[in-house]
Structure formats: structure tokens, C-alpha cells
Amino acid sequence: MIRTNELRGIIAKNNLSQAKVAEEIGITAKTFYEKMSKGVFGSDEIEKMIILLKIEDPMSVFFAIE
After folding, report:
1. Cβ atoms 22, 29 nearer than 8 A
2. Is the dihedral of CA 7, 8, 14, 19 positive or negative?
3. DSSP letter at 56?
4. Residue 56, Cβ neighbours under 10 Å: how many?
5. Cα separation, 49 vs 56, whole angstroms
6. CA nearest 16: which of 44, 46, 54, 58?
7. How far apart are CA 22 and CA 38, in angstroms?
8. In this predicted structure, what is the pLDDT of residue 66?
9. pTM, whole model, 2 decimals?
10. 26 pLDDT more than 90
11. 58 neighbors 7 (Cβ within 8 angstroms)
12. What span, in angstroms and rounded, lies between the C-alpha atoms of 21 and 10?
């Protein structure tokens, strides 16, 4: 399960909007918001976000065990 609050914080720290991240990873803003609400992204989308947002510890964000 993705820690969406953590991901939102990382997006904000990078001075980006969720809509801009969606555009950069190749999905619509609507799709991005839906995926955020479900906490589920595809592996290719996760990989692109790790690079785009310079996430140093992706395991804690994208593969959280709660």
C-alpha cells in the first residue's frame, strides 16, 4: 500500500502539483487522483515518480506495510 500522505509531501517538497506529476509520468490528472485515492500505482508509474521526485527511500513510500 502506498503512503499517499507521504507521497503528497514529497510532491510538495519538489514544488510540483499532483497534476504536473501525472503529466510527467504519462497519465491524466483524473487518473492520478483516482490512483492516489486507492493507493495503487503501476510499477512503471512508481519508477517514473522515484526518478522525477528524487525519492531516496522508495520502499518506505511505495511498499509500506501497515
Report:
1. yes
2. positive
3. S
4. 9
5. 11
6. 54
7. 15
8. 57
9. 0.91
10. yes
11. no
12. 11
Q: At residue 52, what is the residue type?
A: L
Surface-to-core class of residue 51, CB atoms within 10 Å of its CB (0-12 exposed, 13-18 middle, 19+ buried) = exposed
Termini Cα distance of the chain: 8
Grid coordinates representing 44 are: 512503471
Closest CA to 55 of 66, 44, 46, 42: 46
User: In the numeric block, which cell numbers belong to residue 30?
Assistant: 483524473
Q: Are 11 and 17 in contact, with CB atoms under 8 Å apart?
A: yes
DSSP 54: T
Q: Which pLDDT score, from 0 to 100, does residue 57 have? A: 92
d(CA 45, CA 38): 14
DSSP state of 27: S
